[in-house]
Amino acid sequence: xxxxxxxxxxxxxxxxxxxxxxxxxxxxxxxxxxxxxxxxxxxxxxxxxxxxxxxxxxxxxxxxxxxxxxxxxxxxxxxxxxxxxxxxxxxxxxxxxxxxxxxxxxxxxxxxxxxxxxxxxxxxxxxxxxxxxxxxxxxxxxxxxxxxxxxxxxxxxxxxxxxxxxxxxxxxxxxxxxxxxxxxxxxxxxxxxxxxxxxxxxxxxxxxxxxxxxxxxxxxxxxxxxxxxxxxxxxxxxxxxxxxxxxxxxxxxxxxxxxxxxxxxxxxxxxxxxxxxxxxxxxxxxxxxxxxxxxxxxxxxxxxxxxxxxxxxxxxxxxxxxxxxxxxxxxxxxxxxxxxxxxxxxxxxxxxxxxxxxxxxxxxxxxxxxxxxxxxxxxxxxxxxxxxxxxxxxxxxxxxxxxxxxxxxxxxxxxxxxxxxxxxxxxxxxxxxxxxxxxxxxxxxxxxxxxxxxxxxxxxxxxxxxxxxxxx
Length: 472
Known about the structure:
The chain is an alpha/beta fold. It folds into three domains: 1-41, no CATH class; 59-406, Spore Coat Polysaccharide Biosynthesis Protein SpsA, Chain A, CATH 3.90.550; 410-472, no CATH class. Helices cover 35% and strands 18% of the residues. The protein has helices spanning 6-14, 18-26, 29-39, 44-56, 60-69, 83-101, 137-152, 167-176, 223-229, 232-238, 259-267, 306-309, 332-340, 398-401, 414-431, 452-461, and strands at residues 76-77, 105-110, 157-162, 187-191, 194-196, 198-199, 207-209, 212-213, 215-217, 243-248, 272-278, 288-292, 295-299, 322-331, 348-352, 374-378, 391-395, 442-443, 470-471. The strands form six sheets. The chain has an eight-stranded mixed beta sheet with strand order 1-17-11-14-10-2-3-4, with helices on both faces. Strand 7 and strand 8 (212-213) form a beta hairpin. Helix 6 crosses helix 11 and helix 15 (414-431) packs across helix 16 (452-461). The longest helix has 19 residues, at 83-101. The termini are far apart. The mean pLDDT is 94.
C-alpha cells in the first residue's frame, strides 16, 4: 500500500468506499498506481451527495410544480410572418455576416457519441448520410465551414469535442480525408471529461476491470470544463473570438454559423441564445424552453404528463411549444465566467446496466431481471441557460434546420434525414428555375451553395452546370 497516499486512503475510508480499499490491496504496483491516478480526480463529496439525492429522486409534486410554474418563453424571435419581420431578420443577418467577416465567430461541434443506435460501430460523425454521395456528417459540416470562410473571407475556427471512445478514430478520419480541404491548424479536437459510475444500491464506485474505474463521458455539459482544460478559451480570446456557435453532430441540416442566429444574439446582447422549433405535437419527445421564475430553463418531455404538455396560457398560447434543437450561440466571456466562478453545471442521473468486476477482478453477474445496477452521471449544456444574465430564443425553420439522425428506423432516422436533405435540394433547385420532379433525389454540397439564393446566383453565373448536380 506504500504507493497509495495516506490522504486518499482517509478519503476512501470516510466515504465508505470499501470495495476500492480492498481492490487497492490486491492490485499490482502498476495497476495500483493507475487507479490512484484516476481516484485523484474524483470529487467524492459531490458523488456522495449526488448518490443520496438519487435515492430520494424528485417527487411527483416537485416535477408538477415546475410544469405548473412554467410559462411560454417571453424573449423570443419567431419565424418571420410579415414584411416588418422580414426586415428584422435581414437586419440580424447583416449583423451576423459582419461578425463572420470580422473573424469573431467560432464553431463548436459536439461529437462524442458513437453510432451504435444506427447500427454503426464508429464515431457518429463518420456516419454516411448524403442521399447520393454518402457524404459523412463530418464532411457536410466541414464543407459548410469551408464555404462560410470563402464567402466571408475570414477565419472560422472549428472546435470539435470528442470523447474517450471517439477521439483517436475521429482524428485519424480527418487525417485520412485531408481535413476535407480545411487547414489542420484551424481545427481543434478536444476531449470531454469522464465521470465514474456508482453502485445504485450502495454508492460504491464501480470497477470496469481490476485497477480501472468504470467511467462514462460527462455529457455535453462537460463542454465548459473541457474547453478550459484544453486551453481553447484562452486561444479563442487571443484570436479575438467573441461568439461561439454550438451544435451537435447528428443534425446535418443545421445552418452552421447561421448569420441570422448570430445577428440576433449580438443585437440583443445575449449571453446564451438557443434555436428552437415548434413541436409537432404536445407529446413529441423533445425538451422545451420555458420561462421559469424569471429565468430561461428547459423542461424535459419526461417531466410532463400528456395533460401538462398540452397546457395553454390565458391567451390561448401553447406553453410548451419551443422544442430544443441543441443549437446555441454562447458569449465566450459568459463561458469563461462559469469557469472563473467554479460554477459547475448540475449532475443528472441515469440508471443503467454497467458491466463491472468485484474487488477480486471477477465479473459481477448482471441482474437477470434487467434491473439497472448503476448510476451514471452527466451534465447538460442547457443548464447554463438559467445562469446567464441575458438569454434569447430564436425560432428556426424546422423543415430546413432540424432533421437529426438519431434512430436506425422510424422518426429521426437516416432515412428521414436523407429524405430531408434531398427535399431541401429540390426546393432550392426549383426556386432557381431548374426543373425537378416531386420524387427526384438530389444532393447539394455546401460548396455549391449555402442557401437557395446562392444556388440561383451560381447557376446563372455558370459557377457549375446542372449536369454537375448529384442526382440519384
